């Protein structure tokens, strides 16, 4: 950096405000745990940023400032390594860096670098960013680019991650206003000798500016606090990416909102029927003797739009340990197995224990490395056989757990022989139906089960009816207001996914006096390649099914979803094109698909003709604008020299190069200068009628000759005026 003319305390003030903007980039990330670094890393980065800004405020020459920046970066890098738990050894660290450089040169992959090397690259990049931003502010009086990027970054956190950054936006706006006011004073000082600013004026300017900004920000804060939004729930980066992809796929917000497959841990059940977008993110890895469904929660109350659970038989306790109430309710036919769950991302909020049956024992809980090994609070739903781990902000994250579960035995022959009355508490809780349930749903249930002799046959009659008469689809809609979800599915849309099929089966069975409940969890997932007994369960495996009560065996699971997405698959063939082409008449099928594609395209255009018309007009206007700007593209280097890349006092060669577009434009318009003609003689011979342009040309020629013949340096203000004059003449003559 070249030495500036503003007082040192003024440059320190600008640097302090820049420090505030840099903090707004780091501080919102600290509670999210989105970086694979410790929390101490953020504290080191705060001090590191402040040290860099302090060095830069002295505006030292780059040959002196560069080594200082490098030393500072290496010193804080050593602190980061030391705080990570390993004592810093300069010799071993340099040896490791040398190996990383050789590895990078041979493989070309940054992923092969060690963690220490990646941290050093990150800190060097951060130091370059700090230097660039501070240089723009102190040397070129420009802060709007970084300020705009900071505000855009905060808005992205608000939109994509649902973080409450209202206060951060207010603080950033205040910092931007203060910075813009301070660099404006520097810009006035750079304009020329007429704007020499006495040092006391800096103080008066700063105090006045601070008072105005505090008033504006205070009013904005007061107005916003009257309508402060409620705190948002925790949200992962992957969910943010899924939300963004869903926004694009649904026509940029013009269609009905869609949900993303996954397990809802918020505790608030939404209305069913939203269209779904499949997510392939791995949610947890499971070790189990054989594949099972992963039941999480059961629901007993259906109100016509969604399910809920009555918390009447919930007991509290701590894990790990045996759950006596759960083991007491096990049927003799049930077998107990051990299953181990490892989450892809540690959980920070309350969640149900997923298992292949009723949870009989919690063997252990795997906590995050920095968490204390404390017992985890749990809530046990004794009747449902489910367990929920209760977490709050002060508890460690859960990385996984091991449980013993009782897996039901759905033996058809045994279930067909079962008889007897259902217990009173089962009938009261699991035969509930909304009073507004349409009669035609109950009539359909009676029609489906007519002729079935035992409970098992009646259950399978309903299951087979749903699989044969309804179709599987993720492209669904929430039923109209006031309409029952099951009635809409069975008699209107005839298409849905697991929520539709399972709810319909539970309601149809309850209509026939058969206790049933809605279960939410995950399908078995996909076996990991080369690892027997290990399964990968993704968010796309999130599933719902039904459990039916049998007097002797208890609750038995049934899945009515056709072609159940055990691995997140679909009932449709992988490629209907290949299925059709396999018949032999390949060209006919190609023509049919091409004709269908054209028809769908034409239909899309007609349905959105206004959008396509506006798009066509805008595209045409953009093309015309590009054609109109072609003659001015040659002026781009001059514009960059004047407004973007100019950092230092313009030199003789830079000024002469800036004049080339003027001579080229004059030659194209009026012809080349005769041999032996001076610049002033050539300019005076031009047939220019407008007095304004003629005067600019005379001033240009005088300055050009002074620069070309090296008659002495011009003042900074005159050089800038010469650059602007070159740009204006080139535009007008071209």
Strand order of the largest sheet: 8-11-14-9-3-19-18
Morphology call: elongated
Which percent range fits the helix content? 40-55%
Structure classification: alpha+beta
Proportion of β residues? 5-15%
Total number of helices:
24
Number of strands: 21
Low-pLDDT sequence parts: 227-238, 247-255, 565-589
Biggest sheet layout:
7 strands, antiparallel
Alpha-carbon distance between the two ends: 37 Å
Mean pLDDT: 77
Radius of gyration: 36 Å
Descriptive report:
This is Transglutaminase-like domain-containing protein. Keywords: Membrane, Transmembrane, Transmembrane helix. It comes from Paenibacillus albilobatus. Pfam families: TgpA_N, Transglut_core. The chain is an alpha+beta fold. Helices cover 50% and strands 14% of the residues. The chain has 24 helices and 21 strands. Strands 8-11-14-9-3-19-18 form a 7-stranded antiparallel beta sheet. Helix 1 runs antiparallel to helix 7 and helix 23 packs across helix 24. The protein starts with 7 loop residues before the first helix and ends with a helix. 28% of the residues are buried. About 6% of the residues have low confidence.
Q: Topology, please?
A:
Layout: H1 8-26, H2 39-56, H3 62-83, H4 90-107, H5 115-139, H6 144-160, H7 166-190, H8 199-225, H9 237-249, E1 259-260, E2 276-277, E3 282-287, E4 294-299, E5 301-302, E6 307-308, E7 314-319, E8 321-322, H10 324-328, E9 335-347, E10 351-352, E11 358-367, E12 376-381, E13 386-390, E14 398-407, H11 412-417, H12 424-430, H13 439-449, H14 455-469, E15 471-472, H15 485-493, E16 495-496, H16 498-511, E17 516-522, E18 526-527, E19 534-538, E20 542-550, E21 554-558, H17 576-581, H18 586-607, H19 609-629, H20 636-643, H21 652-670, H22 679-685, H23 691-708, H24 716-733
Parallel strand pairs: 1-2, 15-16
Antiparallel strand pairs: 3-9, 3-19, 4-17, 5-6, 7-12, 8-11, 9-14, 10-13, 11-14, 12-13, 17-20, 18-19, 20-21
Helix pairs in contact: 1-2, 1-5, 1-6, 1-7, 2-3, 2-5, 3-5, 6-7, 7-8, 13-16, 14-16, 15-16, 20-24, 21-24, 22-23, 23-24
Protein name: Transglutaminase-like domain-containing protein
Domain Transglutaminase-like: 490-562
Transmembrane segments: 12-29, 41-60, 67-85, 119-139, 144-163, 205-223, 610-640
């Amino acid at each position: 950096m070249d030495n500036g003319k503003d007082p040192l305390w003024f440059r320190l003030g600008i640097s302090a405000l820049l420090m505030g903007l840099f903090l707004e980039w780091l501080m919102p990330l600290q509670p999210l745990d989105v970086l694979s670094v410790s929390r101490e890393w953020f504290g080191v980065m705060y001090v590191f940023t402040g040290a860099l800004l302090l060095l830069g405020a002295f505006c030292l020459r780059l040959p002196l400032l560069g080594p200082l920046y490098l030393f500072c970066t290496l010193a804080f890098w050593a602190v980061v390594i030391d705080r990570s738990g390993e004592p810093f050894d300069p010799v071993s660290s340099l040896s490791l860096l040398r190996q990383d450089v050789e590895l990078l040169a041979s493989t070309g992959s940054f992923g092969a670098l060690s963690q220490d090397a990646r941290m050093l690259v990150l800190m060097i990049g951060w130091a370059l960013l700090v230097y660039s931003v501070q240089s723009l502010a102190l040397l070129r009086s420009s802060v709007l680019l970084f300020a705009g990027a900071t505000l855009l970054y905060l808005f992205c956190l608000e939109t994509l991650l649902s973080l409450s950054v209202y206060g951060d936006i207010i603080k950033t706006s205040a910092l931007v206003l203060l910075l813009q006011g301070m660099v404006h004073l520097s810009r006035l000082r750079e304009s020329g000798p007429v704007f020499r600013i006495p040092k006391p004026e800096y103080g008066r300017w700063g105090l006045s500016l601070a008072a105005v900004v505090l008033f504006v920000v205070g009013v904005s804060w007061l107005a916003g606090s009257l309508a402060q939004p409620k705190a948002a729930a925790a949200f992962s980066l992957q969910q943010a990416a899924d939300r963004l992809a869903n926004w694009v796929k649904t026509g940029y917000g013009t269609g009905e909102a869609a949900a993303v497959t996954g397990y809802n841990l918020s505790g608030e059940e939404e209305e069913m029927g939203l269209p779904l977008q499949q997510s392939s993110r791995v949610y947890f890895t499971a070790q189990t003797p054989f594949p099972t469904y992963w039941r999480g929660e059961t629901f007993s109350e259906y109100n016509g739009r969604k399910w809920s659970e009555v918390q009447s038989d919930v007991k509290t306790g701590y894990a790990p340990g045996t759950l006596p109430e759960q083991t007491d309710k096990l049927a003799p036919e049930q077998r107990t197995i051990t299953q181990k769950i490892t989450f892809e991302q540690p959980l920070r909020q309350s969640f149900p224990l997923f298992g292949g049956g009723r949870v009989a024992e919690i063997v252990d809980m795997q906590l995050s490395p920095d968490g204390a090994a404390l017992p985890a609070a749990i809530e046990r739903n004794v009747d449902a056989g489910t367990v929920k781990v209760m977490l709050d902000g002060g508890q460690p994250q859960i990385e996984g757990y091991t449980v013993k579960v009782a897996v039901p035995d759905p033996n058809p022959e045994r279930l067909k022989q079962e008889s007897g009355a259902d217990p009173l508490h089962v009938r009261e809780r699991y035969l509930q139906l909304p009073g507004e349930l349409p009669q035609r749903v109950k009539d359909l249930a009676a029609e489906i089960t007519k002729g079935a002799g035992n409970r098992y046959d009646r259950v399978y009659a309903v299951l087979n009816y749903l699989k044969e008469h309804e179709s599987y689809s993720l492209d669904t809609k929430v039923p109209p207001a006031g309409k029952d979800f099951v009635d809409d599915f069975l008699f209107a849309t005839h298409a849905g996914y697991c929520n539709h099929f399972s709810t319909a089966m539970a309601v149809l069975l309850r209509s026939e006096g058969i206790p049933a409940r809605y279960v939410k969890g995950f399908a078995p997932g996909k076996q990991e390649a080369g690892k027997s007994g290990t399964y990968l369960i993704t968010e796309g495996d999130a599933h719902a099914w039904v459990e039916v009560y049998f007097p002797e065996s208890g609750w038995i699971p049934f899945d009515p979803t056709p072609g159940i997405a055990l691995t997140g698959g679909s009932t449709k063939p992988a490629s209907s094109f290949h299925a059709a082409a396999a018949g032999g008449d390949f060209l006919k099928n190609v023509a049919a698909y091409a004709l269908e594609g054209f028809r769908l395209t034409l239909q899309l255009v007609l349905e959105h003709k206004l959008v396509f018309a506006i798009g066509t007009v805008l595209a045409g206007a953009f093309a015309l604008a590009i054609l109109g700007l072609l003659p001015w593209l040659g002026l781009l280097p001059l514009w960059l020299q004047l407004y973007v890349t100019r950092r230092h006092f313009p030199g003789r060669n830079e000024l002469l190069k800036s004049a080339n577009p003027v001579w080229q434009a004059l030659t194209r318009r009026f012809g080349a200068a005769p041999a032996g003609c001076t610049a002033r003689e050539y300019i005076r011979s031009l047939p220019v009628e407008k007095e304004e342009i003629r005067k600019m040309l005379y001033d240009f020629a005088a300055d050009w000759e002074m620069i070309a013949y090296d008659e002495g340096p011009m003042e900074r203000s005159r050089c800038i005026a010469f650059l602007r004059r070159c740009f204006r003449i080139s535009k007008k003559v071209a």
